[in-house]
Amino acid sequence: MNRPIQPTYTLDKVGEENFALNLGPQHPGTHGVLRVVLHMDGEYILQADPVLGYGHRMQEKIAENMTYPQALPYVCRMDYLGALSYNLAWVLAVEKLCQFEVPERAEAIRVIATELNRISSHLLWWGAFLLDLGGFTPFLQALTDREQILDLLEEITGSRLTYCYFRFGGLPSDVDEEWLTRVLAFIKEFRDRLPRYHDLVTGNVIFHHRSKDVGVILPFDAAGYGLSGPILRGSGIEFDVRKHEPYSGYDRYDFEVPVDQNGDCLGRYNVRMAEIEQSLRIIEQAIGSIPDGPVRSKVPKLIKAPAGEVAMAVETPRGQLVIYIVSDGSKKPYRVKYRVPSFANLSIFAKMARGQLLADALAILGSLDMVIPEVDR
Amino acid sequence: MMDCCYIKEVVKGFFSLCTGMRVTMGNVFTRPATIQWPRKAAPLPDRFRGHIMMLANDKTGFPKCIACTSCARNCPSRCITVTGKKPEGAKKKVADRFELDFTKCSLCGLCVEICPVGALDFSRDYAMASYTRNDFAAMDLLQGLGSPFKDA
Predict the structure, then answer these.
(1) What is the pLDDT of residues A335-355, one digit of tens each?
(2) Angle, alpha carbons A350-A355-A356 (nearest 5°)
(3) Which residues does chain B have within 8 Å of residue A159's beta carbon, measured at their own beta carbons?
(4) Chain B residues contacting A via beta carbons under 8 Å
(5) Is the per-residue pLDDT at A167 higher than 50?
(6) Is A159 near chain B, with CB under 8 Å?
(7) What is the mean pLDDT of residues A36-40?
(8) Long-range contacts formed by A191-200: CB under 8 A, 24+ apart
(9) Yes or no, beta carbons of B16 and A205 under 8 Å apart
(10) Claim to verify: residue B63 and residue B133 sit in the same structural domain
C-alpha cells in the first residue's frame, strides 16, 4: 500500500486520460453548494480548484446594517449545524464590547447547550462522513441519537436548528431541573450507545483502508494554512480555544484536548470521536455544579456599544471562530468581520487532493467537516 | 512471513466486519424511531417558536396591541406592518391592521420579546403549506379577533 501515487502528467498535456471534472455545485459529497474543478489524469487528481461564492449572502454587510440584537438571528444562519457556538460568539463579543455582566447560571446553561450542539454536529458529521465513504447504516445510527439532542435543545430554545437562544447579558428563559435530569439521562444512554459506534466503524477494516494515510496534513502545513479545530488537533497540534483562551466559564471544567499525531482522515476521525466524550464530560460537570440565581443581568433595552473594537474567539465544532466588531458608538456596528473556521480549513484541500484518487478526495472533503454556507457566508 | 501477516489481516478484518454486522443486526430487534406523521405527531414543546399570533384582550376581545410599532422597528427582516388608531373615547390606540409577511420572517422571536404589552405569542401551527406564496405574503393576524372599528 504505497500511497499517494504522483502522476507523471502535467496540466498542459491534455490527452485521452486528462480531463476536467466538475465536482458540484450540486454533489452529495460536497455537502452544500461547493464546486470543485478537478483536473484529472484518469482516476488521479492533478489539481483541484475550489470555486466558492454560490451561497454568498453578505453576512458581514448585513450585520453592519442591523442593530446588535437584530444581527443575532443572522449569525446563526452561517453555520447551521453549530448555530449555538455562533450565537455564543456574537453575544460574547458584544458583551465584551459593552462590558455587560453575565450571571454564572446563564454561563453554565450556555456551556451545556453549546456542548450538546457540538455533539449533535459531530454526530451528523460522523454519519455524513461515512455516507461519503459508502456506508449507510452509520448515518441512521447517528441521526437517531442526534434527534434526541435536537429534542432536548428544542425544548429550551423553541427551535431545532436555528436556535437563537442566547441574549446579551444572559438567556431569555431559564431551564428547569427536570430538563437537566433529562440531559443527564441522555448522557447515560448515549454513553451506552457509543461503543456501538466504535464497533460499527472504528474497528472496521474497510474504513481503515479508506481513511488511514489518506489526506495527511503535516503539523507545519496545518499551522501555516491557519487550520483550526479537530483538523488542527488531528495533525498533532494541541490547540483549543476553550482550553487556551477560556470563555463563558470553560476554565471551571476539567476536560482534555484530544490530539492525534497521524494527521490523516483516521486521525481527524479519532479526534472528533474523543471530543464527543469530552463534551459529555463537560456537560456532566456543568450540570453537577450549576449555581442557582438569575439567568439574565440588567441590560439596557437599546444597546449602544461604546466606540472601540473587540475580537472574540470561540471554539465551534469546526474550529476557531473569531468575530471582530468595530463600533463607532451608535446602535449599529461600524464594521463586522467573521473569521470562519471552514474557510481556512477548505484552503488546504487543493494541496491535499493533489495526486489522490477521486474517491479519496471525497473522503478528504468529508473529513474536513465543512459547512458551505459558512465558507461563503 | 509475508503470507502469515496477510492471513492474519484477513482474519482480523473478517472479525471486524462481523462486529459491525452484529450492530446492524441488533437493530432488527429494536423499535423504529420514526414517527409516522401525519398519522401521529411528535409532541410539541411549550417554547416552540412558530409564526407569531396576536393575543386578544380578555375583557374586550379586541387585540391587545397598542400599535407602538416597536415590533416592526425591531424586526431584522422588516416583515411586520402595523397601524392603529384610537377608538372613540379610549385613551390608548388599538391595532386596526397587523400583517406579517411570513415569506420573510425568520422566526427569531425578537418581536415577541420586545412587545411592551405582551400582545404577541408564538403559534403552535407548524404544518403550513400552500400552492401560492401569496397566502403567506400578508398574513392578517387580527383575523378572528374582535375589533372596535368594525361597526364604523
Answers:
(1) 899 988 888 888 888 888 888
(2) 85
(3) 49, 107
(4) 9, 12-14, 16-17, 19-20, 22-24, 26-27, 33, 45-49, 74-76, 106-110, 113-114, 122
(5) yes
(6) yes
(7) 84
(8) A191/A280, A193/A145, A194/A276, A194/A277, A196/A141, A196/B23, A196/B26, A197/A126, A197/A138, A197/A141, A197/A142, A197/A273, A198/A273, A199/B19, A199/B20, A199/B22, A199/B23, A200/A137, A200/A138, A200/A141, A200/B19, A200/B20, A200/B23, A200/B24
(9) yes
(10) yes
Distance from CA of B74 to the nearest CA of A (A): 7
Looking only at the bridges linking them, the beta strands covering B139-140 and A18-23 are unpaired
Looking at the predicted complex, does its ipTM rise above 0.85?
A: no
pLDDT of the residue at A10 = 52
Same domain, B59 and B130: yes
Q: Is B150 within a domain?
A: no
Q: Is the pLDDT of residue A158 over 80?
A: yes
A190 and A238 housed in the same domain? yes
Counted across chains A and B, CB pairs separated by less than 8 A come out at: 76
Q: Are B57 and B124 contained in the same domain? A: yes
Domain, as residue range, for B13:
1-30
Determine, for residues A200 and B20 on separate chains, whether the beta-carbon distance falls below 8 Å.
yes
Give how far Cα B75 sits from Cα of A157, A304, A367, B105, Å.
19, 17, 38, 9
Mean pLDDT (whole number) for A55-71: 87
pLDDT computed for residue B150 by the predictor: 65
What's the residue count for chain A? 377
How far apart are the C-alpha atoms of A117 and A114, rounded to whole Å? 5
Same domain, B19 and B64: no
Asked if residues A155 and A76 have their Cβ atoms less than 8 Å apart, the reply is: no
> Vertex A257, ends A211 and A104: CA angle to 5°?
135
Q: Which domain holds residue A125?
A: 59-339
Residue A363 counted as domain residue:
no
| Residue A159: CATH number of its domain | 1.10.645.10
**A301 interaction partners in chain B (CB closer than 8 Å):** 114
Domain assignment present for residue B103? The answer is yes
CB contact under 8 A, B107 and A204: no
Same domain, A7 and A19: yes
Which neighbouring-strand residues pair with B140? Answer: B99
Distance CA(A231)–CA(A181), nearest Å, equals 33
Q: Into how many domains does chain B fold? A: 2
Q: What pLDDT, on the 0 to 100 scale, is given for residue A5?
A: 46
- The three cell numbers locating residue A114: 453549546
B67 and B106 part of one domain: yes
Tens digit of pLDDT for each residue in A225-257? 888 889 988 888 888 888 888 888 888 888 888
- Do A209 and A286 belong together in one domain? yes
Q: Provide the domain count of chain A.
A: 2
